[in-house]
Amino acid sequence: MNLSPRLLEIAKMVDENTLVADIGTDHGYIPVYLIENQISKKVIACDINEAPLQSAINYINTKKLNEKIDTRLGDGLSPINIGEVDTAIIAGMGGILITNILDDNKDIVKTIEKFILQPMIASSDLRKYLYKNNYKIIDEKLVREDNRFYEIIVAVHGKDEIKNNIYYEIGKKLIEKKDPLLKLHIEKKIKKTKTILENIEKNSDKEKNQKYIELKKRLSKLEVIYNDCKNYN
Question: pTM above the 0.85 mark?
Fold first, then answer.
């Protein structure tokens, strides 16, 4: 089976010869891909719900990969033992839920070297948490699938300083790497911000509306990054 663009890019972020935990494994597609392509030595596929985990078990059984892929039922990283994996994939859920998973399992988290995170929403909340809790974002990637943009964030333990709050919303690494989808990604954000501003202008005193003031500042910062994107080849 071919992985979707989103799942394929997540799998590409995994280093060779790693021990991986796939949290929220759903159908087990990433674990099977990592083993079949000899990227990982072993994968632990975890899910909080029985039905998707059973789907993963069935898929893994058909591939006869039971010896290299463990399946475990449980919440977040709780099914993982301390020191058992060096890489954690936490994908396909909200950014705040991802922060909760990291925060609720600190003893396990501190023994994991690399975190591959893919928030469906609230990516800015996730970045803010990472920067404020001694994580360093070392890579980011935008993926477009079904007319939607997905953000993949790769983090390790460490410190990094953010001097501009816009980097919580638009990953600094996306800008530094000149991600080919960044311009379209920002266009979408600018359009959404302008729509909200227009609604505020119609329905309230914009000069006294703190949200309006903050959104204007945000729009200005987004437009600066967007104009820089125009110079990308």
Answer: yes
